[in-house]
Amino acid sequence: MKSVTARIHPETSSAKSVTAHAKLLNTWAEMREAGDGSWVTRICLELTAEPARSQISPVTRLPNGDYDLRIVLAGTSLVMAEDDILVADGLLRKVGVSDGGDGTVELRVILEHPATPTRDDIPGLPHTTRFTFPRDGVRDVFRGKRIGIDPGHGGKDFGIRGPVNLLEKDTSLAVALELRDLLSTAGATPILTRDRDIPLSDADRVSILREAGAELCVQIHACGVDDPLVQLYRIFEKPECAASAILGRKLTEAFFERMGMRLMDSGPLEPSESMPCPTVRVEPLCLTYFSDEANFRAPLFRKRTAQAIFNGIHRFLRQR
Ligand SMILES: [Zn+2]
């Protein structure tokens, strides 16, 4: 890796019109460990040259509970197309990139917690300008939270088998392990009913969750149907439990946002009486649908599935 020195750039308070000389080529976001153990979200811009100035607006609260701020880059024009980039990493929901007129580029940043970015630059070609947001708001939501993760099946009980031999017990575990990592990074205490391929009874699962003091639980399964041309994704909520219903709604919204997937509300969770906390079962994979099985073999797909569950849990806890 090339050794470069990132330098902190002073922000200016006004972005008056100047001739554009930097061209914005590309924009993306990443979640990173900051080095001191904390995590940050970064918006990275690749340009042909350093932007003349940048102005960061104050954070404002939106009616839906999100926050937004605007970053205006002076002396910059767009090469990339105007875009609305979905990030949905718990802090940064999305970034809109648009031509702000008068040789400026505007980034509209939608956040789930108020956070003010710092800018640094890595000179070179392309020139990289980064805006780094602390993720303290996400940690504040998850700190001390004990979250149950219950991957379905295990051992000889393999659940549904896909057309190319992918087993439900393995898909549920793969998502569970990704979710565990996301929750740990956010400062929560994940409680897995299993972290390897072992058989578990319903009673085993309940006692693991109860003894560890889980405050809520997401059960992870897959769906299977007789017709190989049908895609079906389902969600089940613990009956007569208002918190389960809200958690189910947040998970449904998060899956639609992150995966473009509609989870069908498919009735009460069974068996559920003994579950010691608000519980929702999700089936975000249709294993009998050929291309779903193929998609699931890609690590990025599993990460996105886990991220959708994480986002649903995060929004459920955030609004409490
Ligand atoms: Zn199952």
Number of strands: 18
Number of contiguous helices = 6
| Percentage of residues in helical conformation | 25-40%
Instruction: Using the CA coordinates, give the radius of gyration.
Output: 22 Å
Low-confidence stretches: 1-18
Query: In which order are the strands of the major sheet placed?
Result: 1-11-12-3-2-7
CATH fold category name of the largest domain = Aminopeptidase
Task: Give the topology string: H per helix, E per strand.
Answer: EEEEEEEEEEEEHEHEHEEHEEHH
Sheet with the most strands?
Answer: 6 strands, mixed
CATH class of the largest domain: Alpha Beta
Characterize the overall form. elongated
Number of domains: 2
Q: Terminal Cα separation, in Å?
A: 44 Å
The named CATH superfamily of the largest domain: Zn-dependent exopeptidases
Strand content: 25-35%
Attached small molecules: zinc ion
- Integer average pLDDT: 92
Query: What CATH architecture of the largest domain would you give?
Result: 3-Layer(aba) Sandwich
Class inferred from helices and paired strands: alpha/beta
Keywords:
single chain, 320 residues, alpha/beta, Immunoglobulin-like, Aminopeptidase, 2 domains, six-stranded mixed β-sheet, 18 strands, 25% helix, disordered N terminus, binds zinc ion
Structure description:
The protein is an alpha/beta fold. It has 6 helices and 18 strands. Strands 1-11-12-3-2-7 form a 6-stranded mixed β-sheet, with no helix packed on it. Strands 4, 5, 6, 8, 9 and 10 form a 6-stranded antiparallel β-sheet that branches. The chain has a 6-stranded mixed β-sheet with strand order 14-13-15-18-16-17, with helices on both faces. The longest helix is centred in the C-terminal third of the chain and has 20 residues, at 299-318. The protein binds zinc ion (ZN). Zinc ion binds at residues 152-153, 159, 168, 221.
